[in-house]
Amino acid sequence: MQYCSTRGAVRGRDFREVLFSGFAPDGGMFMPETLPVLSPETLRCWRGLTYPRLVLEVSSLFIPAPLIPRDHLEVLVGEALSGFSVPDAVRITRLKDGLSVLELFHGETLAFKDLAMSCTVHFLSYFLQKDRSRAVVLVGTSGDTGGSAVHSAKGLPGLDVLVVYPQGRITAVQEKHMTTCLEDNVHVFAADGSSDDIDRPIRRLFADQDLVRSHGLMSLNSVNWSRIMVQVAHFFYAYLQLSGVEESGEELPELEVVVPTGGAGNITAAYIAMEMGLPLKLVAMVNSNDIIHRTVTSGDFSMATNVTQTLAPAIDIQDPYNMERIFWLLLGRDGAAVKTMMEEFQRSHRHALTESCRKRLSEVLVTGAVSDEGILETMRRCWEENRYVLCPHTAVAAWHHYHCPHRPAINRCYVATASPAKFQAAVEKAGLPYEPPEAVLALDRLPARYQNLERSPDWCTDWENQLRRWIQLVSRTRKDGGVCYAQTP
Questions:
Q1: Whether the Cβ atoms of residue 338 and residue 321 lie closer than 8 Å to each other
Q2: Torsion sign (Cα): 278, 282, 286, 290
């Protein structure tokens, strides 16, 4: 299994190299050069497997045994998924009228990212211990990624984590999951801007290959292929649980999966699962930040002037960077075409898809956009009919259930990306009764530590320079055996 860049200039990398990378050196994103295609017989044989076992099976397709032997891989996955609050790490809740919810939020920070993040950090730790080396992780977050990265990597001796979040644009619980983690290897930065603003200096830092090489700089955003790889298992699990697939039969039944979408990592993983032979119908639902919806329906792949703050802040994104991976697959792995498209988008923040490309995209992806009022309406209706509280992001997906009737012959799955406990203001605004768990209430009593990235006339360069200094500082301090962390202002 070899990996290449979506922009065509990098090929022949192995899983370890890709794991320790952010963006590829040519600015693209890493993808397998070929995707394994599973037979219907294999899929039927996987019926009844637990979620951790499916993560193992999927991961073993992309991680060659000479890099991580299967017995070691099984231990790593088992350890990564052992601390979740439900036995199988994930759970499906079946509600009225075919509303089946795939709950992916039973990890420490109550978000789906805990699943892939925990596995990815265990893979990293395996190689770092084996090589007696160190790495610096740099993460920009729209809310949930940062907390998952912090809690997955806290205290690990070979890893420093720098997390940047948009101050005032995430919930208090999301913020406290980051700022209350006081381990010496955790460094948290609050930026006066949006998550898309944060991505700009981070992209510049990863483009500096000298910095990347000299400090072991890497990403744990869904830029990292390992995150996407583990998320592919979500959709195998949902399919095998909900599609009605039998042990025999000529054709596999179809399952429609509805995914709340921001950076497009989960929907990319679902599309990869389709390419691997899973008969899925994909629906990507967005909030008022509707770039993916506009791209599919009209070919308008362009950012709005500003990121709109909504009740579903983790998907308040105007730069859905994982769409680059989808474009690469749609365009027949044409790296030159993807490079032209994405460089124009990064330069001008807009690109008009050709009609043929837009049509191919619309054939594999249905989209919809939901307002804040639609989110609240969906949360209330689900409570009234099921006594079940949705988080606002899951409500973005579930809106599709109430407004787009489907044929009973096709089963549907709605992806629940976070617990409502993280979004208490939205729950209260919907007028729903909900008591957060004690672990969430306890966050208010913990001390916090972070550093501000202030807005300035040349804020992008200023943030880049400040983060660069911290990367250099933590690397130098660790080599000298000291301790370094971001102070509370």
A1: no
A2: positive
What distance in Å separates the CA atoms of residue 81 and residue 86, rounded to the nearest whole number? 10
Q: For 337-350, what is the mean pLDDT?
A: 95
Q: Distance between CA 267 and CA 365 in Å, rounded?
A: 9
SS3 label, residue 286? strand
250 contact partners, CB below 8 Å, separation of at least 6: none
| CA 77, 43, 242, 246 torsion-angle sign | negative
Tally of CA atoms within 13 A in the half-sphere of 447 that contains its CB = 6
The span from the CA of 405 to the CA of 146, in Å, is: 36
pLDDT score at 289: 95
- Tens of pLDDT, residue by residue over 26-70, are 989 999 999 999 999 999 999 989 999 999 999 999 999 999 999
Q: For a pLDDT cut of 70, what percent of the chain falls above it?
A: 97
Pairing of strands 451-453, 186-191: parallel
pTM over 0.85: yes
SS3 470: helix
Contacts of 53 (CB under 8 A, 6+ apart): none
Q: How far apart are CA 398 and CA 390, in angstroms?
A: 9
The pLDDT tens digits for 410-445 are: 799 999 999 999 899 999 999 998 888 888 888 889
* Helix or strand (DSSP H, E) at 459: helix 459-479
CB atoms inside a 10 Å sphere around CB 481: 6
Q: Are 253 and 307 spatial neighbours (Cβ–Cβ below 8 Å)?
A: no
Residue 173's φ and ψ, nearest 5 degrees, are: -65, -45
CB-based contact 398:378 (threshold 8 Å): yes
What is the Cα–Cα distance from 363 to 266, expressed in whole angstroms? 18
259-279: pLDDT as tens digits: 999 999 999 999 999 999 999
CB-based contacts of 158, cutoff 8 Å, min separation 6: 125, 128, 129, 133, 134, 135
223 token code pair: 């830029």
The sign of the dihedral angle between the CA atoms of 410, 87, 79, 151 is positive
CB 466 within 8 A of CB 201: no
What Cα–Cα distance (Å) separates residue 317 from each residue in 160, 175, 224, 313, 461?
A: 26, 17, 18, 8, 21
* The two three-digit tokens of residue 112, written as one number: 């789906």
